[in-house]
Write a structure and sequence with these properties.
The structure is a single chain. Helices cover 24% and strands 38% of the residues. It is of the alpha+beta class. It has one domain: Gcn5-related N-acetyltransferase (GNAT) (Aminopeptidase), CATH 3.40.630.30. An eight-stranded mixed beta sheet has the order 1-2-3-4-5-6-8-7, sandwiched between helices. The two termini are 26 Å apart.
Length: 192
């Protein structure tokens, strides 16, 4: 695998692009990250200040240095409108080679409904299976957030199960539907 640098972790598709997250994205992303409706199924509470958004983006930027996570800002006409992340990147477990990660994504409410999450996630999947050398992506969506599941379906991810009572937020327990997407279709693999 070649050296991974921010330069080779950028993809563009006409007016849409993904590039590594930057602290400078905070002002543009803060309104979405402060929206309670957006964070309903996400692992964070609505942001109260732009400084909170800056702090989160700084942490995401720093997390990339050890290869345990990768985060991209989604740009529409060069304006930040969301994030796509590969989290819990696992290369090995003892003697096993894993090369997998969990994909997560969100798009600002005013930019939702026109396929941006699907297009941006496809770009990141391309980077995951190409530049980052991953073999599998896991994608979860809350059962009561079917639009997030449709993004995974458009990528070609297949359902592998439902995790009951996977997380509690704001006093409500949510089930997660898990999907997986492979670098190569399973039919091309030889299994033992």
């Amino acid at each position: 695998m070649s050296l991974i640098t921010p330069c080779n972790l950028v993809r563009q598709d006409g007016v849409l692009a993904v590039r590594p997250v930057r602290i400078q994205d905070a002002d543009a992303l803060f309104p979405a990250m402060a929206d309670p409706a957006l964070s309903r199924f996400l692992a964070w509470a609505p942001h109260v200040t732009v400084e909170e958004t800056r702090s989160v983006l700084a942490a995401l930027e720093g997390a990339q240095s050890d290869g345990k996570a990768w985060h991209w800002t989604v740009l529409l006409n060069d304006h930040p409108v969301g994030l796509v992340s590969l989290i819990d990147v696992r290369r090995t477990h003892r003697t096993w080679r894993l090369d997998r990660a969990e994909m997560a994504y969100w798009i600002a409410p005013e930019a939702q409904g026109c396929g941006l999450a699907s297009r941006a996630s496809a770009m990141v999947a391309d980077l995951a299976f190409g530049s980052l050398g991953l073999e599998k992506l896991l994608i979860a969506n809350a059962k009561d957030n079917p639009s997030s599941g449709r993004v995974a379906e458009r990528l070609g991810a297949r359902i592998i199960g439902t995790e009951l009572r996977a997380f509690e937020k704001d006093g409500c327990w949510h089930n997660l539907i898990w999907r997986e997407l492979h670098r190569r279709p399973a039919e091309e693999e030889s299994f033992v």
